Amino acid sequence: MRASKPSQASQQSHHQTTLEFATFSDCLIQVITEDSLLAVQMDDLERVMDLLSLKEQHARTLLMHYRWDVDKVFAVFVDKGEEWLFKEAGVMMEEHNDLSSGHSSSEDIRCDICMEDTPANGTTTMDCGHCFCNKCWTEHFIVKINEGQSRRIRCMAHRCNTICDEGKIRNLVCTRNPDLAKKFDRFLLESYIDDNKRVKWCPSVPQCGNAIRVENDKYCEVECDCGMQFCFSCSSEAHSPCSCLMWKLWMGKCQKESETVNWITAHTKSCPKCHKAVEKNGGCNLVRCVCGQPFCWLCGAATGAGHTGYSIEGHLCARYTKDKEKNLECARTYLWRFMHYHSRYKVHTASLEAEVHLKEKLKMKISKLETGEPALQDLSWVEKGIYTLFRSRRILSYSYPFAYYMFGHDLFQNEMTKETREIKQNLFEDQQQQIEAYVEKLSMVLEEPFKVYAKDEFAETRMKVICLSKVVDNLCRALYEYIENDLLGPLQQAIHIIAPY
Q: For residue 465, what pLDDT band results from cuts at 50, 70 and 90?
């Protein structure tokens, strides 16, 4: 989905042509930088503090418990009441006297953790009323922070679910280890991202330090200010129309198979029983698969296990039969099918990478044309054209992994009859071919040297780009509608959800 960046877009004038070449449709997001993280977090904290009349630490505890979902906090407050809301989150609102305040500084208080008497000024009482010595509290806090549990540190008392006062935690830990106290504060700050279902770190490598917040469905694709485009649901690179599961399986398959596919073709043969690739490690043409099936290396047909110097049990290799041809075809189908979809996926991925140079060329063209005649300064059609080209090329690239799983037997073997699968696959491939044809035309037109054209030629090129962009956009939208309504919609498996077009 196209990432909307209010902080930048609002600063740009309407007449200025910009080149924010995203590959997604409209999606309301907010890019959170390291500097703005505290301010964004405080916005949500203040909403809860104002409505429920809470201190900051109690509002933070509530929001952490409900994963920084302000609407959820308010909904629980309305449905179940204030008392249930606070108790569930471990917030203690009742006033408890500080036990140490009622004693003189020289009077000792027995700590129920270490069982030692400690001066009153050496103890701390939490909101729940439990009082222990500062040494035990500090050790407890240090252990929790080092274990990564510092966001919600509970009281040490048996069966007490109250979350400890973050101010008291900070003061006690800082006395012993100032660096650990800073780590504690950092954990509280980063909780807004780590525990928030609407916010995720940008997965760029190396990390840019930004986070992305979405305001609507998590099944969307976003773009960070650093240029990283990713799926908000799984944090992988943007991969629609593949579902997250499809993309995960495809990446694993590519990593496992694509680098060795040529070697497998040249040096192995498929087992006629389990269809796994088998390598011959001796001179004898009777080989045995790891599944136990013996077969003939010459023709790939299953045989018996017996073997003499002249023949293999139950096998006549020289005689041609249709069964042999069928077995060989079945054994190779898995490999060839993967190679078909993988090669086309790589072709469009390579084209997308190559067209990055086209983007840079168009930047130069636009900068020169904008300084020329006023009639040539409205170049929004170029921006629209390259945006459509990038987006449709990416969709084409990922449509092949989608087709590999959609019309194969790995995920949906029992979801469609053979006849239904063939009909739907033909319709899908027809739409694929139409998009491919028009995408190539759009790419060719955008590569034309229109900056040196006469006015008539320039106007003609402009019209071509506008029309082709519209056609490609409509075809891609129709492909997504077909996928969502006719392919994924009727499936029983609801896990295959894709980012909308």
A: very high
- Residue owning tokens 């073709």: 265
Which letter does DSSP use for residue 408 in this model?
Answer: S
Q: Which of 114, 226, 274, 284 is catalytic?
A: 284
Sequence-distant (≥ 6) Cβ neighbours of residue 198 within 8 angstroms:
68, 69, 213, 214, 215, 218
All residues at 6 or more sequence positions from 233 whose CB lies less than 8 Å from its CB, including other chains: 218, 219, 220, 244, 497, 499
Q: Which token pair is 218? A: 């998590």
Q: What are phi and psi of 155, to 5 degrees?
A: -60, 150
Partners of 89 in beta bridges: none
Determine the length of the chain: 501
At CA 379, angle to CA 447 and CA 501, rounded to 5?
75
Catalytic site includes residue 128: no
**In this structure, are residues 34 and 224 in contact, taking their beta carbons and an 8 Å threshold?**
no
Write the burial class of residue 332 (CB in 10 Å: 0-12 exposed, 13-18 middle, 19+ buried).
middle
Per-residue pLDDT tens digits for 389-418: 999 999 999 999 999 999 988 888 888 888
Cα distances from 205 to residues 34, 353, 419, 425, in angstroms, run 16, 18, 45, 37
pTM: 0.71
